[in-house]
Amino acid sequence: MTKIYSLFFLILLSGFDKAPDHNNGFESVDETSSLPSGWSFQAPNYKNVKLDSGIKFEGKYSLSIENSINYNTPQEVGNYFSFGENDSSSIEGGTIELRGYMKMDDVQNGYAGIWLKVDGVDTLSTLVDKKNAGTYDWVEYSIKLTHSKKLRGIAFGGILDGVGKVWFDNFQLYKDGKPLVSLRRIPQKKAQVDTSYRNGSRINDIRIDANNIANLAVVGQMWGFLKYHHAYAGSGDVNWDAELFKILSNTLKCKNVIELSNSLEAYLDSLPKVRKCDNCKTPSSSKALIVPDYGDLFTGKILTKSLTNKLRNIQQNNSSRQNYWIKKEPSIGYPQFVNEKSYDDMLFPDTGYRLLTLFRYWSIINYFSPYRNVTEYDWNQVLKDFIPQFLAAENAEQYTLATLRLIATIKDTHANIFNNYPTLESIKGKYRVPFRADFVEDKLIVSGYRTDSLGIQERVKIGDIIVSINGESIKKLVKRYLPITPASNYETQLRDLPWNYLMRSNDEEMQFVVKRNGRLIKLNITTLKGKSTYRAPGQKEKGAYYLINNQIGYVNAGRYLNSELPQMKKMFAKAKGIIVDIREYPSDFMPYTFVNNFKSAKSLFAKISLVDYSNPGTFIIADSLYNGPAKNGDLYYGKVVVIVNSDTQSQGEFTAMALQSSPNVIVIGSQTAGADGDVSAIVLPGGIFTMISSRGTFYPDNSPTQRIGVKIDVVVKPTIKGIVDRKDELLDKAIDILTSN
Fold first, then answer.
1. What is d(CA 118, CA 307) in angstroms, rounded to the nearest whole number?
2. The dihedral of CA 590, 593, 595, 601: what is its sign?
């Protein structure tokens, strides 16, 4: 049993459903949602939670959670109750036990389990009985929590952290071995069950002019500010998406800033008053890496003094320690954007929902991105620039592209539209050419072949320079697709362009002009469906680790496993030097295991910034990370060369930083992806799924890695000649460095 990864236990102590049926077996179904009555859900995508009448342990239904994407946010189902004031089960100490059945299918990258949480007068205890990755038939799991003081509430349910599918059925609660039935249900949050705007926002046909753009920008700023600062907006007791549509319906009539300010103030006055917070403190700006930016809310240029003062009062008295829309990941602290609805069936949302997409994303970045200060453009200006783009979208394709351009502005390689989003996939093309191309020396060249179509190599040669595709020059195509290629830097955009756009089409044939030995050659290439492996002729897969010429150790981070470390150390004990290749994403976490072998003493290798949850938009250094020293006399004294390029991303960059804390390490290669740190998932209307870097990562001297990448000692890039000659020029350089010293 372990501590739960994340929970959303927001207790209400009024308006209880006193029905004796706790629906622990999911037999009672809500007709509106087709989900079990009374149960609450926390999921980046609600469509992943379903009743299942085909697979169940008993009765008519089980409840399933299915993930095909690792959202980096657990998905939970929960049943929430309180005890009566004089309930003996609550007053008397004893043991609370939860039993429940669970079935798992191909769960990966995490675990599934049942969880139990008891809320005492001055204690809060949570346990999970979990089963790690795999496939398992129905098994009964159980959790026991002992309490000695009076209880106020109890909650239980199931959780999936990772990908795969899990089913739950027949939960039962016991107090000291006897069924616990004297409970009062805590109602579901209105934000979850309210469907008043489910079929549309009722906002349409907004005229695109300077007045409306300016007014809408202020509306978006205030709506996002209240979402993360006002206790009522963050309680879950109100559908905050729907509140946006109410605000819009009133403010769209405003002809000037005075009318706008009066309308917004009238709305603000309709909300519950904010209580004074004697313990709330604004952190010193001198200690903050980033301070909040509230846009036009406090400038005094647009809103009246009366409204500005009321908003300032909310900002200064933000006493809420829990917010329905945002949770702090309990182990390392990055934000989890829980309970946002994805409105999957709205592939082309109406005007109001399109503005919701813009305002939701803008607000998340404004208050929870540790890299808001390194976006491509001023973030307040981005809001104003994109309002007309979202208003003007006339179909699903234009809406998707507007969203993708918005995501691209934050310059974060972790950010994109993921999950093979159908509208975007149709834009990119369902077919691919049977060869690979990469940018080398500022030219697009053929670099490999699809392994199931090797016959293409008779017509297309490695090193061919692609001059045009379907009659358009590569320069023109790059200019067209760069704005919809999210990445932290230009090198990484060039990395992604061929795979995402240039080598794809909805046509069964593509026309290429290539330059070979000074001659231009026209080629009509038949495209193929599906994905495959691409490789240059004679290219062999690199093993996890081996000796080069019996004197240099080579480690491929993409294959290395910590379990192999003892054998690897024996093999490399007498090696003249070691090459660590991080051009593939690491298969295991190396900074505190593998890297320690190169350090004679413990030392700092990174600093981490996190949002101050009590003051959204403020980021401070929250942690300092150390690794080393080598244990049991295992210190390796030789030189170490680390190879990186634009494929070195996230954990790969973090591993490089850890290695750089050893004085014996040299990093060679080219600019890395510039997206370090953990990620948080975001869902947007239309079922769009994206992510952002959510923990700031810095070197010990506070120099950043975001957008820039890791520090490079020796810049080495592939050449066209090297590609043609089948050489790994970065590896050759690493060997040369070690052998020449």
1. 41
2. positive
The strand pairing partners of 63, in sequence order, are: 51, 168
Token pair recorded at residue 633: 């006399």
**C-alpha–C-alpha distance, residues 680 and 606, integer Å:** 20
Say which residue the tokens 């990055």 belong to.
334
pLDDT class for 112, splitting at 50, 70, 90? Answer: very high
Alpha-carbon distances, residue 658 vs 210, 241, 712, 716 (angstroms)? 50, 42, 14, 21
Mean pLDDT for 273-288 is: 80
Identity of the amino acid at 590? M
Query: How many whole angstroms separate alpha carbon 516 and alpha carbon 551?
Result: 39
570/565 Cα distance (integer angstroms): 9
Query: Got the DSSP string for 50-111?
Result: EEESSS-SSSS-EEEEEESS--SS-EEEEEEEE--TT-HHHHS-EEEEEEEEEEEEEEEEEE
Determine what percent of the chain falls in helix, strand and coil, rounding each to the nearest 5. 25, 30, 45
Average pLDDT, integer, range 506-529: 96
- Of 360, 410, 366, 358, the closest CA to residue 384 belongs to 358
617 within 8 A of 290, measured Cβ to Cβ = yes
Q: What confidence score (pLDDT) does residue 480 get?
A: 97
Comparing 43 with 698, the larger pLDDT belongs to 698
Which DSSP category does 294 fall into? -
Distance CA 217, CA 251 (A): 11
- Cα distances (Å, whole numbers) of residue 483 to 401, 404, 467, 490, 496: 10, 8, 21, 11, 12
Residue 93: CB atoms within 10 Å: 11
CA neighbor of 433 nearest in space, from 441, 444, 442, 423: 444
Instruction: Provide the edge-to-edge strand list for the sheet that holds 619-627.
Output: 619-627, 603-611, 696-698
Contact 297, 313 (CB under 8 A): no
Beta bridge partners of residue 546, listed in sequence order: 554
Task: Find the mean pLDDT for residues 3-18.
Answer: 37
DSSP tag of 437: E
Tell me the three state secondary structure of residue 323: strand
Question: DSSP assignment of 102-162, as one string?
Answer: EEEEEEEEEEEEEEEEEEESS-EEEEEEEEEEEEEEEEEEEEEEEE-S-EEEEEEEEEEEE
Q: pLDDT tens for residues 680-693?
A: 999 999 999 999 99
What the block records as the tokens of 36 is 């079990």
**Average pLDDT in the 158-183 region?**
91
Residue with tokens 């054998």: 567
DSSP conformation class of 204: -
339: left (phi over 0), alpha (psi -120 to 50) or beta: left
> What are the phi and psi torsion angles at 385 (to 5°)?
-70, -30
Amino acid 15: pLDDT: 37
pLDDT tens column, 148-162: 777 888 999 999 988
The DSSP call for residue 649 is -
What's residue 616's pLDDT?
Answer: 95
Task: Decide if 289 contacts 244 (C-beta within 8 A).
Answer: no
DSSP 230: -
Q: Among residues 444, 654, 441, 451, which one has the least CA distance to residue 541?
A: 451
Task: Report the C-alpha gap between 352 and 203 in whole angstroms.
Answer: 5
- DSSP letters along 337-368, please? -TT----TT-SS--HHHHHHHHHHHHHHHHHH
DSSP 405-433: HHHHTT--TT-S--TT-HHHHHHH-SEE-
The strand pairing partners of 446, in sequence order, are 437
Q: What percent of the chain has pLDDT over 70?
A: 94
Q: How many CA atoms lie within 13 A of 605 on its CB side?
A: 25
b/e per residue 31-62 (b: at least 16 CB within 10 A) = eebebbbbbbbbbbbbebbbbbeeebbeeebb
